[in-house]
Amino acid sequence: MFGRRFRLFSLFGVAVRVDLSWLVIAVLVTWSLARGLFPDQISGLPKAVYWWMGIAGAAGLFLSILVHEFSHALVARAYGLPIKGITLFIFGGVAEMEDEPRSAKVEFLVAGVGPLTSLLIAGISYGLYILADGALWPLPVVGVLWYMAMINAILAIFNLIPGFPLDGGRLLRAILWGWRGDLLAATRTASRIGASFGMLLIILGVARFLLYDWLGGIWSFLIGVFLRNAATASYQQLLIRQSLEGTPIKQFMNPNPMAVTFDTTVERLVEDYLLRFHHKMFPIVEDGMLAGCVTMQEIKSVPRERWSSTTVRDIAQHCAAANTVSPDTDALKVLSLMNHTHISRVMVAQDGRLVGILSLRDLLQFLAIRMELEGVASQGLSAAELREK
Length: 389
Hints:
Distance between the termini: 11 Å
Mean pLDDT: 85
Shape: elongated
Order of helices and strands: EEHHEEHHHHHHEEHHEHEEHH
Largest sheet: 4 strands, mixed
Helix content: 55-70%
Number of strands: 9
Low-confidence stretches: 378-389
Strand content: 5-15%
């Protein structure tokens, strides 16, 4: 979902990051306010004043989205859900939870507090607008307060649309989950509504673009694409979690892995193993015991002219917790391990003996079949995308 991110600050133990794409929306909002909305609302002011109003309005939108996401994060943390942080990006912001809510009640409360917060900000802003207008405060202040009331009301209404992953979609999922007792089925229904709403925005965006509202059309189209993809990805993520969580990796591993010995030369390792089986890591077995591993990195450290005289013993690496697990380890935990260490294959050992190899490819093949059975398009899910799940 995100590109390059920068950490801004931390508040209440929650890290706030900004994606580079946020700069696009910040500039666009400032420009649209300074050149369009505020001059239409209040005429006769100097151009520099409109630009300051645009900057103030964009900053107010930034703070509103931040408070909205903090409300999600704090309620989630109050119910024991770990929060990775808050990221602001081109389509707004997101509070990143590390796990799914444990009950429909928690899901409902975490989702519902966001729109309520936006409505509260809208109400406070509108009250200040009435006060400022009656007390004859400077017109730029009055205009920015009116904008804050309007934009937060729009944010609340938009987020209440019952399509996942919008807050309204999460509320719908919580209701269906509590009613049926099936989180996966509830997520599937809410995600389909979210994907349909995204398609509607895409169609409206194309229509608006053809009717010469090119800026509004482009934004409708982009938001629609984002919502449609996010809805599908959210269901995929839950399906992956439920498919792997609680399942030992011995059900997915290859029980007959290719292994080398300490006496294998680098030349033979490359010709007979690396180029033949296309793996970047091979376990080393000696006297039936797992003795280490050798990777592409170690092979590349040996000059080509020394391949025939250098053995695996000379470049072998010790087995570590990062690349060795037991056959009863939870598959979801192994996927998380792969994510944090950026490795694509782990060795499976029991009592010091190599009993298998697990790769992301093994998990991908299983998940592709599971998604097909569930009627979900895997959309060419890659190993890198699986790591993001």
